């Protein structure tokens, strides 16, 4: 995203950091477990589609995106995760994406 504006829905991001900050804000402002909707979904999904393991994580299925308490050992943070159409789940790092 160097040197160009990125428009996602009604939001425009001047830099990659602006988009990352917005996505992090979404992570901590949404209700845990509720699938994302609206501009929050569009922004996070746009980021997720750039994840290097997107295909492996989706397994070719449609999915919903939600936030939850981290599945890691500390459980102090939130993470995004996808819920595949078959009901299986996996987390993903928006920073990696």
Main beta-sheet annotation: 3 strands, antiparallel
Please list the strands of the largest sheet in the order they lie side by side.
3-4-5
Could you list the spans in which at least 5 consecutive residues all have pLDDT below 50?
A: none
Count of runs of 4 or more consecutive helical residues: 3
Rounded mean pLDDT score: 91
> Helix- and strand-based class?
alpha+beta
Strand content: 15-25%
Percent helix: 25-40%
What Rg do the Cα atoms give?
13 Å
Q: Could you tell me the number of beta strands? A: 5
Helix-strand topology string: EEHHHEEE
Shape: globular
Q: Briefly, what is this?
A:
Helices cover 31% and strands 25% of the residues. With 97 residues, the protein is α+β, with helices and mostly antiparallel strands.
Features:
alpha+beta, three-stranded antiparallel beta sheet, two-stranded antiparallel ribbon, 3 helices, 5 strands, 31% helix
Structural account:
The radius of gyration is 13 Å and the shape is globular. It has 97 residues and is an alpha+beta fold. The chain has helices at residues 16-29, 38-48, 54-58, and strands at 6-8, 11-13, 63-69, 78-84, 89-92. Helix 1 (16-29) crosses helix 2 (38-48). A three-stranded antiparallel beta sheet has the order 3-4-5, with helices on one face. It contains three helices and five strands.
Helices and strands in order, then pairings?
Layout: E1 6-8, E2 11-13, H1 16-29, H2 38-48, H3 54-58, E3 63-69, E4 78-84, E5 89-92
Antiparallel strand pairs: 1-2, 3-4, 4-5
């Amino acid at each position: 995203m160097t040197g160009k504006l990125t428009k996602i829905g009604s939001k425009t991001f001047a830099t990659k950091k602006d988009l990352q900050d917005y996505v992090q804000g979404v992570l901590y402002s949404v209700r845990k477990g509720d699938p994302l909707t609206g501009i929050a979904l569009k922004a996070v999904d746009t980021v997720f589609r750039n994840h290097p393991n997107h295909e492996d994580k989706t397994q070719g299925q449609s999915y919903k995106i939600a936030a939850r308490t981290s599945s890691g050992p500390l459980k102090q943070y939130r993470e995004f995760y996808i819920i595949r159409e078959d009901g299986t789940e996996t987390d993903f790092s928006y920073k990696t994406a």
